[in-house]
Every structure is written in C-alpha cells, then in structure tokens.
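Hi R.,

Here are the chain sequences for the assembly we discussed:
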Amino acid sequence: MASSKDLAVFVRDALSAGKNRAEIASVLTQAGWSTHEITDALDGWADVPFAPPVPRPQTVVTARDFFIYALMFGALLFGAGYLVGLLHALIDHLLDASARTADHRIRWAVAVLIVTLPLYLWLATRERARLAADPALQRSAIRNWMTYVTLLFAAAVLLGDLVAVIYAFLNGDFTLQFALKALVVAGIAGGIFGYYRAGDGRGAAV
Amino acid sequence: MNKLLFVAVIAVVSGAVVSGLAVVGGPGQARAEKRDDQRFADLHRIADAIICDAGDGRAFSRACRSAADATDPQTGAAYEVTQGEDAFQVCARFELAQAESPMRDALHFDRARGCLRYQLAQPSKQWVIEGH
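And here is the predicted structure of the full complex:
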C-alpha cells in the first residue's frame, strides 16, 4: 500500500514528465485512488505551463497555532460565560436585593474575568499583528476551525436564549428580571458571533 | 481588533467587575461575613447544648455535645448567655449590618448585638425559638 506522500511524489514526477492532468487522474483511478484523493494530489501543483511543476501553498496545522487558538478560545468561552454570570448576579442584586448567596458567584466571576479578559485581548492583538505582518499565516487550518467552532457555540447560545425566552413567555415567567438576563445573553453571544463573522468575512478573524 | 471595539469590551467588562466588587465588598468584608457566620453557628451550638442539659438530653436523640469551646472568632471572648427559669438567650456582637442576611431572621438585634432567644413552651415542655 502506498501512502499519500507517495501519491504526491508520483503526481510531481508525472507532471514533470509532461503528462497531462486527465491522464494522471485516469491512471490513478485505475490504481484504486479515490476521486477526492486524486483531486487533492493534483491541486497541490499549480496548473501552469512551467517545468518543474509549481507547488501550491497548503493549509498548515501547527502545534503553536493550536496552543494559541485553543487558549484564546478557552479564555473567550470562560470570560463570556462568567461575564454573563456576573451580570445576571448584578441584575438579581438590583431587582431583588435579599440574596446574599450570590456573593460567592460574584467573587468567582470577578476573579475569572480579571484573568481571562487581559489574556484574550493580549493574544488577539498579538495574533492580529502577526497576521498583518505575514498574510500567508491566514492559511492556518486551526485558526479557521477555531473561528467556526466559536461561531457554532455563539449561534447555539443565541438559539438557546431564544428558546428560553419563548418558553418563559408561554410559562408566564417572563418578568423584567428574566428579560434583562435574556438580553445580556443575547448581547454577549450576538457580539461574539458578529465579531467572528465579520472577521472571517474580511479574512482577518482574530 | 479595532480600537472602538477594544475600548468598548474593556469598558463593559471593567464596569461589570467594578460593580461586582462594589456589591460584594473586598476581602475584609468577606472575612467579616465568615466571622459572622461562625458566630451565628456558635450561638446555635450553645443553645443546643443548653437545651440538651436542661432537658437531661430527652429532647435530643443524639448525645449532648459541649459548646464550652465556642468563643468569638475575632476577640476570643466567651459569648454572652442569659439563662432564666423558662427562657434563655445567647448573644454575640456581629460585625456587619444585618438587614441583608435572610439566614439570620431568627436573631433579635439591638444594634450590633444579636441574640438567639428560646423559651419553654408550656403545655409541651419543649424549647422553641422566639421569632420576631
């Protein structure tokens, strides 16, 4: 059995030998490679009349990217979650000041935010500067994945918030307190969604 | 990350953090809360011990536990106990305003001095806590 590395080498050699792409695809199909694998292998080389074949840049997966973007994602997730918790506790305190039980929640949320906010902002500005200096880094596969995972989470939270509002309304629990809390969730999740969406559109998501 | 958004995010989060701290107070406040909780628990322990002794342990299914070691967590002073024939009270000096502490509804306050009061309910000969 040959690995996909052998496939890449074969395609390069075949292109160097002046075979055309349809011919190469046809023999590879006969050899049992899937259409998907063949397309990937051929797309690794630019379709220009030049010898030797010109390699195309590929999306890259690096451990460094994983470290930075997973850290940013975690900081964002925890920061946003506890910001929601903190604002909810403050709304409770404003509208119904009897509960002292929220004190621990507030202290914990404050501690989380003091760590995550500076961390996220620092990493985000640092990555932005790095991307601006070298646009080739935008091909990071992990960066794209993290952007879409963040969008997925934000969208899920927004939809969940909408469901909660409708349920509360039908259940007769739609109070001012609830409305404000739902608004906080929608504002934060919507903000993150909009930010990542716009960033992705510009090809400069951070 | 554009400047305006950057500033807005910092403003919102710092605003939330600062108002959070304004609501719960700093570490000094938290320590005072913990000492007050300790005082409240001590008063209950002392009252339990008194009831236990007075009724020869009848009112309790478990053994009487001594509350002799219960002293004020800050000053180390003994709590104030006033005992009569069919009523008693145990008192402590609390540090924080009592208005926002629902768990201490049972206490009778005279400024900082909060007391747990019990009386002997006549027909049943049981000690009951005196409400407001």
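The first strand of chain B starts at residue 80 and ends at 83. The mean pLDDT of chain B is 80.

Let me know if anything looks off.

Best,
T.
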